[in-house]
Amino acid sequence: MAADNLRSDKIWMDGALVPYDQATVHVLTHSLHYGLAVFEGMRCYRTDDGRSAIFRGREHIRRLVESAHIVEMPMPYSSEELLKACADVVRVNKLAECYLRPLVFYGEGEMGLAARGNKTRVAIAAWPWGAYLGADGLTKGVRLKTSSFVRFHHNSMMPAAKASGHYVNSILAGYEARRGGYDEALLLDTQGFVAEGSGENIFVIRDGVVRTPPLTSILPGITRDAVIRILRDGGVEVREEFFARDALYVADEAFMTGTAAEVTPVVELDDRKIGAGTPGPVTRKVQEVFQGALHGRESKYRGWLYYV
Ligand code: PPE
């Protein structure tokens, strides 16, 4: 992650494409102080017919607008304007495949928690981003550690909003797991049920039945939604229900989903092998169909593509 080059020609800021070096903010930018900002992460892929498409661009922009609504941020642009801006960023930077980061934040002017007068600002940047949990993670699977950090309660922070401040929880959990030699953290909710990874949703498979936690304390992942649909279309039973960490210890397979992580197999939790300790057949199949969908090879899922 650290080695990636974020530099592009242009970043969209407040309605215009500006040179990378001019996409800056003042240190008194309100959001920088209190973490009240919302953002998205989406990926654009080169499809098999040569065109590039943002995977589920409409759904990501919808979630961005909903995130702003949840935290009472006025949104100065329509969904159509935001979508078009995302496409412009991909095109102007000549990035056939990239990660896109729309960020909605409060500018400078007033300080303090009670401030309501700061202008909402919007930036959209793009850069090439490789495999989130490593190239090996995608093929061989990752090792997780149950975090000592609990996923925040939905009455403290609202998980349906992809808000910047929420990520303090994720970052600390991720630091702890990686310092301990694991690839990623698994956070439990305040009841002790499995919630999600620091930046991914989680799925577990046993006896052919797939389970994933309900949308109580987790980000409503767009990849999660796509994978549920792919599994059900393939005749696999998917249940959204609470389960404890030991459900992973005795699972046949597990995987994580996310825009950055795509579909990443999970082969270990808390030093216990999951199933055979290698990516399983259901996971492999989901990865294959998902990759097909991203690249426009699955006609059934072509509606998920927003061509730039
Ligand atoms: N949970 C969390 C906490 C989360 O951050 C993500 C995305 C997901 C689940 C999966 O959601 P979706 O991308 O809609 O399937 N994490 C983003 C941030 C990564 C980052 O480090 O920045 C992402 O994958 O883009």
Report on the structure:
With 308 residues, this protein is α+β, with helices and mostly antiparallel strands. The protein is 27% helix and 27% strand. It contains eight helices and 17 strands. The chain has helices spanning 30-34, 57-70, 79-92, 135-140, 167-179, 222-233, 246-249, 281-294, and strands at residues 10-13, 16-19, 37-39, 42-46, 52-55, 98-106, 120-127, 142-146, 184-188, 194-197, 201-206, 209-212, 238-240, 253-258, 262-269, 272-273, 305-307. The strands form two sheets. Strands 8, 9, 10, 11, 12, 13, 14, 15 and 16 form a nine-stranded mixed β-sheet that branches. Strands 1, 2, 3, 4, 5, 6, 7 and 17 form an eight-stranded antiparallel β-sheet that branches. Helix 6 (222-233) links the parallel strand 12 (209-212) and strand 13. The longest helix is centred in the N-terminal third of the chain and has 14 residues, at 57-70. The protein is globular and about 55 Å long. The two termini are 25 Å apart. The mean pLDDT is 97.
